[in-house]
Amino acid sequence: MSLFLIGDSITLTLLVFLILIFSYYVYNLRTNNIFRRIGIPGPAPIPLLGELFNAMRRGMYKNDVALIKKYGKIVGIYEGITPIILVTDPDILRNVLIKDCHVFVNRRVIEGGAGPFEHGLTMLKDEQWKNARSIVSPTFSVAKLKAMHSLMNDVSDMYNERLLEYADKQEIFDIKTINGQYTLDIIASCLFGVETNSLKNENIILINHLKKFFTLTLTRIFLLFILIARRRQCLERRNDFIQMMIDHEEEIKDQEVGQQSKSLRKTLSDKEILSQALVFLAAGYETSNVLMSFFFYVMATEPVIQEKIYQEIRQEIGDNEVTYEKLNQLQYLDMVINETLRMYPPVLRLDRVASKDYQLGNYLIPKGTIIHAPVYPIHHDSEAWPEPEKSYLKAEKAKRHPMAFLPFGEGPRNCIGMRFALVEAKLGIVRALRLVEFERCGKTEVPLQLGKIIVLNSKNSIFLRVIRRSQ
Ligand code: HEM
Questions:
Q1: For 341-360, how does the pLDDT look when each residue is reduced to its tens digit (9 = 90+)?
Q2: CA of 121 to the centre of ligand 1 (A)
Q3: Which CATH fold would you assign to the domain 21-115+348-406?
Q4: Domain ranges of the chain
């Protein structure tokens, strides 16, 4: 009996202790709320979760719209216990992303949590980032993209075969799955030098291919190093990212013969090359899939727009080869892709950290403050986008604030893969639309429900069907 009483009093003491700690935490959060001190408006934080609770409940994109509507263009929120300032004021954003970008070079990085991605561009900071970005940037030049074109074409051949199979069997399919296979195969082939061929094998679920890719067992790492070593010894060549990095190293060596060694490194180690390629896969796979999937959803639900794009393709390219130059002539297609990116921006927040105390509009923010640009409310602001369908015409575009459209971010830390992603998507789209017409079916969800996570995606599958075109 007395043992039970002792047990009860220990539980009670523990409970009181926990309540005291929690009350202190809530009191501390409220009185030391950094935003109160600075004067930035925002919601009272929910203990431990902050706005994460509402973001999970409503979806981040909807929650961001609600916050901006309620508190204005600068809002202080807590994500978990981390304070973050949301900024949608276009002039202030321009300062953060472009004019004062030297203050906002870095993103928030969780130290030690990046594993094999740790040398990747998204994670690197300050001089290390600048150095790596300047080495990697030329890989995404027009000339290098043209060199990768035939690798992309091979994958789009497989994509078309699959679409024709669906058309002939009159089969309804999930466009997200096949686009995921297309973007995985393209990125793996063009950037990693590995043929995943997920489009060839329907029975293997996409996730298995991704798992295979991201499970960097010792054997896999070893094999990837062998792949790089073979390229270094010129035992094989391929117009992909790894080859370009190796060629770049040779060029630098040639240039530096006879010169004194420079303090800034101009090449990447094998480990760094692998890390970059992995980050490209992570940053480019889902985002490109989302773009293409929403695009084909628009095609299926807006047949007039689909027909207009088809007519443009016939007029500008006909049955000829779809080259890089030809893709750039398709102006209407470009507008519809941009409008898709405006309506459904794959990346919902841009992220920067202040490297010193900074005057953010009317507020003095301390060094280390995290700034987020919530892209969805920016893209859906009716003041900036009074008539979206006209907004891509040259004259209207010139009037638009440059910070009103941010699907690929802005400034020196913007998306390095933007051109790559657009070529990849346009090539897949143009070659597909020449062969088949997309239609909605009984299982197509209209309107689409959107997912709740950081990359904007549809919540459910996007079921469509295709019909062979008769020419
Ligand atoms: C439709 C497709 C894509 C979208 C919408 C997209 C969007 C973005 C956005 C919004 C950012 C952040 C920019 C900023 O903070 O200002 C970003 C960064 C980045 N993206 Fe993309 N991206 C796409 C495809 C790709 C592809 C295909 C690759 C690689 C091949 C890629 C590689 C990267 C990298 C490495 C960064 C970090 C750049 C740095 O920190 O220097 N992205 N992307």
A1: 999 999 999 999 999 999 99
A2: 10
A3: 3.30.43
A4: 21-115+348-406
